[in-house]
Amino acid sequence: MFNWMRNRRIIVLMIVVVLFVAVMGFSISDRKKLTWPENFILDASGVVQHWFYKPAGYIAGFFEDIANLRHLYQENEELRKTAAAYARDKNKYNFIEQENQRLQAALGFTERQKNMYDYRYLIAQVIAVDNSPINQTIRINLGSKDGITTDMVVVSIDGLVGIVSKVDPFYSNVMPITQLDEKSSVSKSIAATVKGKELLSFGMVDNYDQETGMLSMSRIAETDPLAEGDTIITSGLGEVFPKGMVIGTVKSRQVGDYGLTHTALIDPAADFEHLTEVFVVEVPNAKESAQ
């Protein structure tokens, strides 16, 4: 209580001094020379005014800094939200762009094939892959309810994948061409030829080497024009694989075991490690023959 009364007296005294100085200022404003008591009072009042105004300036600056920090925080929050929205929209755009490119590639593939052959392509999703070296199987989401039957050919936009080996009402199993083995009773050799040399070239793709990842083409005549870099396609001479399906690219050619014919190593066109969508090929003539 005593301290409060003391401070109150000091404040009242300061106010009186300030008022006194103000009155003195008005009274001496017209005089050019001041007496030493007047100078002392004016100097003392300047010190008092500085003592009052400086803390007031600090307080005003403090509150101004707080306001600036609040505005800065609000701006940062808006920028953070904008950056998050941009990242989300960018990811969405990239996904749509990838889907568009994928669908365009699939559409272009089917359109090219339609212009070449009267085939119908049923798009299917790969839902499972059994990578067992003995019985590798690809599971797709089309079955007998969709018109799928055994021995229908399955391709990707890159090349030949395999044939349908088992059909359920809503799903089917596909045996890939990487299961070709001349010692297996379930394998089906593929009658093949060279794209652009269909009337001059012929052979049988009948084996796959798991270690090299290469298909083997045999029964190639010595006079056959097949050469390294040629594209191997199905010839359509067999009862299963329709003509024009891309199998792969010739990597090398060599003389066969008995020297009468040649063999060739074929690099498969289909990417069996990253199959997500495939096409089941429906051949109209084959379907009518089956009926």
What descriptors fit this protein?
six-stranded antiparallel beta barrel, 2 domains, 40% helix, alpha+beta, elongated, Thrombin, subunit H, single chain, disordered C terminus, six-stranded antiparallel barrel, 291 residues
Describe the structure.
With 291 residues, this protein is an alpha+beta fold. It folds into two domains: 1-116; 117-290, Rod shape-determining protein MreC, domain 2 (Thrombin, subunit H, Beta Barrel), CATH 2.40.10. Helix content is 40%, strand content 26%. The strands form two sheets. It has a six-stranded antiparallel barrel with strand order 1-2-5-4-3-12. Helix 1 (2-28) packs across helix 2 (36-116). The longest helix is centred in the N-terminal third of the chain and has 81 residues, at 36-116. The chain is elongated, with a radius of gyration of 45 Å.
Summarize the topology.
Elements: H1 2-28, H2 36-116, E1 120-130, E2 137-140, E3 153-155, E4 160-167, E5 172-176, E6 190-194, E7 203-209, E8 214-220, E9 231-234, E10 246-255, E11 262-268, E12 277-282, H3 284-290
Antiparallel strand pairs: 1-2, 1-12, 2-5, 3-4, 3-12, 4-5, 6-7, 6-9, 7-8, 8-11, 9-10, 10-11
InterPro entries: Cell/Rod_1 (IPR042177), Cell/Rod_MreC_2 (IPR042175), MreC (IPR007221), MreC_beta-barrel_core (IPR055342)
Protein name: Cell shape-determining protein MreC
GO biological process, one term: regulation of cell shape
